[in-house]
Write a structure and sequence with these properties.
Strand content: under 5%
Helix content: 55-70%
Shape: globular
Largest sheet: none
Structural class: mainly alpha
Number of strands: 0
Order of helices and strands: HHHHHHH
Number of helices: 7
Length: 166
């Protein structure tokens, strides 16, 4: 996982250096295979909140920060789920617990969701505000470079949602 890149996307300008450092540390540890326990998920939620919604700005107002377009807002919970999905897929893949059927399902979902995304990308960019740069038209090389990351995200989302249902 690219901890610094994620921090640049979601971090509030008034987040403290300590909060930023903790965020990068925990995201990096999770990307390196650290287990995500119930307590660890609660800590991750706190660390993400500390960089996205610094207490000095958001505590008194009770507001929740949502970045990006209204149709796909990035909130604290969205970021945590995203990180959890990537971590789950990465660990399962490295442990050899992702079979061909799951990869094929992930591939189909990835292809369909990519086509859907490319069809609405320009609209999302116009609504994204601070995150508009994330929705710029990708080059063929960028699409290729992101394919593995996106496939892991799709697999991870499937795995964590399947786990929730059982």
């Amino acid at each position: 996982m690219r901890a610094v890149g994620l921090l640049e996307q979601v971090g509030h300008q008034l987040a403290t250096p300590t909060a930023r450092a903790r965020f990068v540390r925990i995201i990096t540890e999770l990307g390196n295979g650290k287990a995500l326990t119930v307590r660890g998920r609660a800590e991750l939620l706190d660390f993400v909140r500390d960089v996205m919604e610094p207490e000095t700005v958001f505590a008194a107002s009770g507001l929740v920060r949502a970045l990006g377009p209204a149709g796909a807002p990035m909130t604290v919970d969205t970021v945590v789920t995203h990180v959890e999905a990537l971590r789950t897929a990465l660990c399962r893949t490295l442990d050899g617990k992702v079979d061909g059927a799951l990869l094929e399902r992930g591939r189909a979902v990835y292809r369909a969701s990519t086509a859907d995304y490319l069809a609405v990308r320009a609209d999302l960019a116009s609504e994204a505000g601070q995150l508009a740069g994330l929705f710029r038209e990708p080059t063929l090389q960028q699409q290729f470079d992101q394919a593995g990351h996106q496939l892991l995200l799709v697999l991870g989302m499937h795995l964590i949602h399947r786990r929730i249902k059982t």
